[in-house]
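Escalated from tier 1: 5CA holo job.
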Amino acid sequence: METDTGALPKKQDFSEWYNEILWRAEIMDVRYPVKGLYVWFPYGFAIRKFVYQHLRELLDRDHKETLFPLLIPEQEFMKEAEHIKGFEDEVYWVTHGGTTPLEVKLALRPTSETAIYPMFALWVRSHADLPIKIYQIVNTFRYETKQTRPLIRLREITSFMESHTVHATWDEAEIQVESEIALTREFYRNLCIPIIISKRPDWDKFPGADYTIAVDAIMPNGKTLQIGTVHHLGNHFSRTFNIQYEDKNGEQKEAYQTCYGISERCIAALISLHGDDKGLILPPTVATFQVVIVPITIGKRHEDVLAAAGKLKNDLENAGLRVTLDTRDLRPGAKYYWWEIRGVPLRLELGPRDLDSGKAMAVTRTGEKTTICLANAAEDTTSILTGITDAIRAKAGEHTKSHLCTTHTMDGLDIALNEGKVAVVHWCRDRTCGDTIEEKANSSLLGTEVRSEYIEATDGPCIICGKPGKATLVGRTY
Ligand SMILES: Nc1ncnc2c1ncn2[C@@H]1O[C@H](COS(=O)(=O)NC(=O)[C@@H](N)CS)[C@@H](O)[C@H]1O
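Tier 2 regenerated the structure:
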């Protein structure tokens, strides 16, 4: 599909850059005539496929994939008081089948606890049925009233991975929470996205959860994006939905649960953190094409060059790489531009001189220039791709580290936030001090028990009242 040409906005104008890159790199078409609903272009959908393929590989180590209905009957949805309170303003309802009014209104799942847990009540009888660990990757619907943005805040979340587990004890559920956190670390390491993990304050936890562990990334404009959440549900839902099991002594016991969610925000973070003024930069593990071969066929030996380029493509594909050979009738420079904006990590240029030297020019999207030996193409290319991954990961790490700081005063917090940074402060965990931090610094208190390789989270006197406080993450959020 032909998209516009011409310079991209600079990445420092992040909002404009982000919107333009979704169009120019053929990720999403935002022209769909319903607010908060967007269309995947095939190129963007291929990135989603590789990202979620990796997420499935990680989940399949310990969970089983399944699929539950989209529509939830009102009586089930309305069963869990806190859950309703959390979602009553966001849930879409289906009220008619054709022209016939439905006897029972049906909710479009905003998340699937109230679809799945009545079935768990049927599946769980004995301790031998536990643990249950399932997930699904589905679309969910939330009538978001804050500003909608493609991949970031949608009304139809098209790529909502939700995992739901059932355990015999609270402790086993907590072990599962830690296991999902480890899985999330591995997932985001593969995407070269640095994350900061923290425990959301009680007033910001998932409706019906005992506690929520959240995963945040720091976006180029310094705002944090919540790119994953793991919830310990205690026996809150099992009590409401009667998910009980007979233990070894024949007694009826309530089960304990977790749920865990990642949406296409992971792709928003991938695009935002790694891109530059020339466009996307995709980590090789999830790039639609890892290599683009551009034959330089100006002048003589046209056929030889094309033949050598074809052989190079085969060699690389036989080594399992995703390669495209661009033989379009365009100037090489136009091809370079086309694939740079689409974030292809490695370009191989092959001209007549290279045939004689048995080499090809290798230009990485992270700014390196080197050569590969055609006789050793697969090995040379694979090692360059590894180097590209390391460079992408290092750059994102530098960005995150430089946008994180510790401060002990409200003035310091204000300065940090106005500089587009995220701060670690000390908070006594008293709600009134929390509210003061949020109001005075126009910020969100993201959480305590901060875990990040980029910050030393120590304890100290509360930034408001001076009482003993805990390291607490504070930022401005999407
Ligand atoms: N409107 C939205 N658009 C895109 N992603 C969203 C939206 N709302 C939430 N998310 C993402 O989905 C994740 C899970 O959503 S959640 O409400 O926190 N948790 C749940 O729904 C739980 N049932 C776990 S699946 C969030 O961490 C956030 O990254």
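The chain is about 35% helix and 30% strand.
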